Amino acid sequence: MTALVRPSRLAPGARVAVVAPSGPIVEERLQAGLDILRGWDLDPVVTPHVLDRHGELGYLAGSDADRAADLQAAWCDPAVDAVLCARGGYGAQRMVDLLDWDAMRAAGPKVLVGFSDVTTLHQAFATRLGLVTLYGPAAAGADFVKNAVAQEHLRATLLAPETVRTLTSRGPALVPGRARGVTLGGCLSLLATDLGTRHARTGARDGLLLIEDVAEQPYRVDRMLTQLLRTGWLDGVQGIVLGSWASCGPYDVLRPVLAERLGGLGVPVVEEFGFGHCEGALTVPFGMAAELDTETGTLKLDEPALS
Q1: Which residues are catalytic?
Q2: pTM score
Q3: In which band, very low, low, confident or very high, does the pLDDT at 201 lie, cut at 50, 70 and 90?
Q4: Which of 34, 49, 228, 268 is geometrically suited to a Cys-Cys bond with 66, CB 3.0 to 4.6 A?
Q5: How far apart are CA 111 and CA 220, in angstroms?
C-alpha cells in the first residue's frame, strides 16, 4: 500500500458541490450547512436530486441512477473543486457501480468529503481513482450544523491543511506501540459488507486502519471484526485507530470485544480518536502516509492532507 494522490486545497471562492449518494436529506439542515460553507467564503452548489426521496424506498435520496448522475456530474464539472456528501444513511452501495470511473478519472483530482455510508465511496475512490479522500462531517449532518469543533476542523482541513497534520486521541491505548502506514478505513459495517466487491480494497496490509461505527451491538461488532480476520483482510495491518462507537452498547462491554478481537494482531491499537458518529467529529484523511504513537496518543500525517 502506497500513499495516494492528494487533491489541491480549497481557496476562498472555491465551488463545492453538495450531493446525496445515500439517505434522504432534511432541507433545514441542508440550508444550515450551506450557510456555514458560505461563511467560509466558499461557493456551495446543490445538485439537482439532493432533496429527492425514493418513491417506494423512503430510506434512499431518490433513485440509484439519479444519485449516481448527480455525483458524476459534479465530479466531472471543471468548475467544481470539491464534492461534499450531504449525509450518510444507506444507499452508496446501490449506486457506486453506476459511476463512469474513466470519465471521473479524466476529470482529475478533487476533494471528496463524507463519512458513514460514504465509506463505500472512499474505498472506490482509492481503488479506482487513486485519490486521498476526507472522512469527515456530512454537509447536512446534525453534528456539522450544530458543532463548532466539527466545523472548524473540516474548515482547517479544506483551507489550511498544514495546521491539522496531527490528530490526537481522547482516550488510552488498547495495545501500546508505534507504527507507520497509509491511512484507510471508515465505518466497520461498510468495510465488512464491501468485502469481495470490485471497488473495495483487497486488504489493509501496510496500512493504519481507522474504524468506527454506530448502533451496532457488541456481538455485531465482534462478528464484523471476525469476518475481516477470517478473510485475511487484516493481515499485515500496521496499526489500528478506533473512533466513535455511538449507541453500540455500554463501552465497558464493547471495549473487551475490541481488545480481544484486535489484540492478537500484535500491532498498536489506540481508542477514542474522536472521528465518526460523535459530537465534534474530526476530519481524517484516507490514503496518507502517517505515524501512530500510542504513548503520545497521536496520528501524525507526513504531509498535509491536501496539497
Answers
A1: 116, 212, 277
A2: 0.98
A3: very high
A4: 49
A5: 32
